[in-house]
Amino acid sequence: MKKVRIGVIGLGNMGSGHIRNIEDGKIDGMELVAVCDIDPKKLEKYEGKYKTFARSEDLIRSGEVDAVMVETPHYSHTTIGIDALDNGLHVLVEKPVSVHVADCERLFAAHKRHSKLVFGAMFNQRPDPHFAKVREIVKSGMLGEITRVNWIITDWYRPEFYYKTGGWRATWKGEGGGVLMNQCPHNLDLLQWMFGMPKTVRAFCQFGKWHDIEVEDAVTAYFTYPNGATGVFVTTTGEAPGTNRLEVCGEMGKIVVEGGSIVWTRNTVGQRKFSTTTTSSFAKPETWKVEIPASGNGGQHVTVLQNFIDAIRSGAKLVAPAEEGINSVMLANAMIYSSIKEKTVELPLDGAEYEKLLMKLVKGSKAKKETVSVELSAAEFAASASK
Ligand SMILES: NC(=O)c1ccc[n+]([C@@H]2O[C@H](COP(=O)([O-])OP(=O)(O)OC[C@H]3O[C@@H](n4cnc5c(N)ncnc54)[C@H](O)[C@@H]3O)[C@@H](O)[C@H]2O)c1
Questions:
Q1: Fewer beta carbons within 10 Å, N or C terminal of the chain?
Q2: CA 14 to ligand 1 center in whole angstroms
Q3: Pairing of strands 244-250, 146-153
Q4: Cα separation, 264 vs 306, whole angstroms
C-alpha cells in the first residue's frame, strides 16, 4: 500500500521533535514531504529537504500531502484542523484538541462532514501500559464499584524560563489556560478514559501562584461521579520534586500507580459486604498485595503516530480518536469556570457560556512577554512530553 504523505504544521518543540522521530525511521508507511511555520527562521533548517510553506492554507491546498500533523499553539488547532478536514486531509492534532468546548464542537462538525477521514489526537500517554491496565481492571469490574479516585500530578514542574520560550505560552489569548491546558490534557484524558466523566466539578485554581503568568499554575479540584464516587485532582507546575500518584479505591480494595509500579491491595471480601456481615467492631477485610506487571511507557508519540498511519493505510482502530479529546477540554474548562465563578459546575459544561467567560479573560489580558528561542534536544523532547 502506498505511503502516507505527511505535512507537519508548526515546527517548534513538538513539530521538530516529531520530525526527528520520523527522520530516525521510527515510523513505517509514511513519508514526510512538507513542513510549515509562520516563522521563516523555523523553515530554514528544512529548506531543500521538504517543501516549505509559510502559511498552513497553502500547504493544505498544495496537493502534496494526504495528512497533516497540527503542532501549533492551541487556538489554531481548531482553525487549521477545520481547514485541513474540509480540504480532504487526514489530521493528527496535538493536545488539547481545542481550547474550549465550543471550539471542539466546531472542529468535530468538520469531521462529521468528512467522516471517512482519519482524525486522531496526540494523547501519547494512552499507550502507557500502566493506565491501560488500570482501565482494564476498572472496566472488567474486578475492582468492584469505584468509590474514590485521587490523582496528585504535581511533577509537571516548569521554571520561569520555560514560560519565556513562546509568547503564546501561559496567556489567555495564546494558550487559553495554564497547567490545565498545556500539561494536564494528558492526565485529564486518562482520567476520563479510565473512570468516565464526573457529574460535577468544584475547583480552586490559583492564577500565577508560582510564576509571573496570568493563567492557572496550581489547581485542586473535587469531582462527584454519577455512581456517588468522589475524586480529587491536584496539579501544579510550581512544585519540585512533585508527585505523580494515582489512587483508585473500589469495593475490592485500592490500586496505586506510582513510581512505575501498579499495586493493588486487594480485599478478599468486598468492603461493604464485610461491613454488613462482621460481628467485630474493629475488623477489616483481609487483603492480598498484588503487583500488577506493566513496564515501559508504550512508545508514547511514536506509537500514536504509527497508529495514525496504520489507521489511514489499513483501517486500524485509533488509540486516541480526536472526538474523545472533548472530555479533557471540558474538564479543564469546568475547573477554570468553577474557580472564577466560585461555584460547582454540572457537566456537560455549557460551551457557549464558557467561551463567553474565556473571551472576557482574553480581552482583559495584560500579558506582555519577553521571549527567547530555543531548540529542544531529543532528551528534552521526551522529558517535556512523557511521564
Ligand atoms: N503531546 C505532547 O507530548 C506535547 C508536549 C508539549 C506540547 N504539546 C503541544 O504541542 C503544540 C505546540 O507546542 P510547542 O511546545 O511545540 O510550541 P512552540 O511554541 O515550541 O511551537 C509552535 C510553533 O508553531 C508555529 N506557529 C504558530 N502559529 C502557526 C500557524 N498558524 N501556522 C503555522 N505555524 C504556526 C510557531 O512559529 C512555532 O514554531 C501545543 O498544542 C502543545 O500543547 C504537546
A1: N
A2: 6
A3: antiparallel
A4: 32
Q: Which CATH number fits domain 4-125+299-320: 2.40.50.100, 3.40.50.720, 1.25.40.80, 3.30.40.10?
A: 3.40.50.720
d(CA 223, CA 342): 15
Model confidence, pTM: 0.95
Report pLDDT for 372. 65
| Residues with Cβ within 8 Å of residue 252, at least 6 apart in sequence | 142, 143, 144, 266, 267, 270, 271
At residue 367 the predicted structure's pLDDT band, cuts being 50, 70 and 90, is: confident
Domain ranges for the chain: 4-125+299-320, 129-297+328-363
Protein residues with CB under 6 Å of any ligand 1 atom: 9-15, 36-39, 42, 56, 71-74, 76, 94-95, 122, 124, 166, 182, 384-385
Closest approach atom of ligand 1 to CA 166: 19
